[in-house]
Specification:
With 221 residues, this protein is an alpha+beta fold. Helix content is 30%, strand content 23%. It has a five-stranded mixed sheet. Helix 2 (43-54) packs across helix 4. The longest helix has 17 residues, at 158-174. It starts with 12 loop residues before the first strand and ends in a 5-residue tail after the last strand.
Length: 221
């Protein structure tokens, strides 16, 4: 059975571009995003990892650690980083500082069910599948809070991934949920577990649209 929301993210040890890590110890008290890419020296992946590096300050201020993974070895990872930085520099300062896991034996990719079972072109020379574009958002308790899987042909939208981090963190702190297309600073929804009497204290400016739909402005940093 695959990993589900609410599961504890499996722990593992791995070699990365920043040294050997034990995953749970590496996360520590932070949030973490584990994201796989099909292969080094490939076009879509180069654009993605450059964007993640460029957006590193946005993740850091949200207390989110980043870590990539593919079925390539460390030597390829280190060489490829130069290309990633060169590509990203067209759009802004880009310096890959987050670790990239070397998983040539696919043990971690298998543990997290990241391998491509769909695209026959997403294979190595031996016919073994590469990873798809999987994202796991993991909270400080090591609980999986979000999973997204993109096909190898489609680059991810990291604005959306940051948006989800904001939603999860605000929801944990303020007893709210977020509506369709919500962005940080927009009105939020009062959580159904909050009674109307409680809401009067917690959210003085809340509005009742339906008995089950109540919104409120929420000022957050």
């Amino acid at each position: 059975m695959g990993l589900r929301l609410g599961d504890i993210a499996p722990d593992f040890e791995a070699q990365t571009t920043k040294g050997r890590i034990k995953f749970h110890d590496w996360i520590g008290d932070s949030w973490a995003i584990l994201f796989s890419h099909p292969g080094d020296f490939t076009p879509v992946c180069t654009t993605e990892l450059a964007e993640v590096a460029r957006r590193a300050p946005d993740f850091e201020k949200r207390n989110v650690k980043l870590i990539g993974i593919s079925a390539n070895g460390l030597e390829d990872h280190h060489k490829w980083v130069q290309d990633i930085n060169e590509w990203g520099s067209q759009f802004g300062p880009t310096d890959v500082q987050y670790p990239i896991i070397a998983d040539p034996d696919r043990k971690i990719s298998t543990l997290y069910d990241m391998l491509d079972q769909q695209d026959p072109t997403n294979r190595d020379a031996k016919g073994l599948p590469f990873t798809i574009r999987t994202v796991f958002i993991i909270d400080p308790k090591k609980v999986i809070r979000l999973t997204i899987s993109y096909p190898a042909s489609t680059g991810r939208n990291f604005d959306e991934i940051i948006r989800v981090v904001d939603s999860l963190q605000i929801g944990d702190k303020y007893r709210v949920t977020t509506p369709v297309n919500w962005k940080k600073g927009d009105d939020v929804i009062v959580h159904p577990s909050v009674s109307t009497e409680e809401a009067k204290t917690l959210f003085p400016d809340f509005k009742i649209h339906k008995p089950y739909l109540r919104t409120t402005p929420l000022k957050v940093e």
